[in-house]
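note to self — DONT lose this again. spent like an hour looking for the file last time. sequence + predicted structure for the chain T wanted, 380 res
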Amino acid sequence: MTARPANSFNAEEILAGILEWVRVESPTHHVGGVNRMMDLASAAMAKLGAKIVRAPGAPGYGDVVTARLPWGRDDEPGILVLGHLDTVHPIGTIDGPLPIRRTNDQVWGPGIFDMKGGMYLAVHALTQIVRVQGRTPLPVTFMFIPDEEVGSPSTRAQIEAEARRHRYVLVPEPSQGGNLVTGRHAFLRYKLHMYGKPAHAGVDNRQGRSAIRAMARLIERIEAMSDLDRGMTYSVGIIQGGTFVNVVPIECHAELLAVAPTVEDFAMIQRTMAALAPDDPEVRLAVEPGPIRPLFTAHDGTLALYETARRVALANGFAVGHGQRGGGSDGNFTGALGIATLDGLGVCGAGLHTHNEHLLVSSLEPRARLLAGLFETLGN
């Protein structure tokens, strides 16, 4: 490896760049905010000399940015850095329950951990390699995704097509306790539609059938089937229903996320959801399957990639473990294709998807060195 200046991975410099990205609020369905993030990512990659391809987003979603570094043949398999710039936090979160703030090693902000911190970290790491060495042994492509937080429904085909061009996929999703991710549980999304019978709630609601009440009972039944110890879970995260308080609600709609750690669990969840029925024969249920993240289990290519990362980490004075985890990512798609995929390469912290989302500044330098080491080692 070519020697780099000792201060090439300054944590405070990295943090300043991450915070520039975090200040742009970009919940998935806020197309303007997501596209402002795509502007920042495109500008950062253009400074490296990357060829930027920006594909307009599907209706309701932001654009997809693919940035190819200008070395190697167009058809030469290389390294794909894959990650998203959308978040789960609504507009106004930064001025409300999750302002940017710092206490010693912890820095809070919407999307700082999942996963703007990791994607910026990867850009910074590659920048240091290019600044000193001019290029990496293998071609490098970055792909910035706008809709990962809702299951990547508009981008899965693009992700899979791009991944097939490469030997390796690096995913800077949040680190799991400092460790790396060599497998991901499968994720299945469903929409539940319950239909009841109308009545005036203030006259004689016995004539009606409340879709909300029926849905509430169904949710209790579904979530009770979770096996938390194994990681096989059912969880309803969105529910909507009713029109007026004095009308027995005739419609209720819910969105459910199911997590399957094994092939058997995946099949069981599909059977369970297909067989769902309300406990009242006078209401009707429709189950609408949604986006799926396939099961990603460790295979030889991924384990060999992890072994390279383990050696790079040890050379930089720290250790990294690995394993299969929950928390879906776009790495599910590439790992399930059999492409060597290493996930969880991003920053350390906690509280993703909550108002406690934060990163640890102390993780920025070692994680940047890990990514840089992979860029300059793979292909040698």
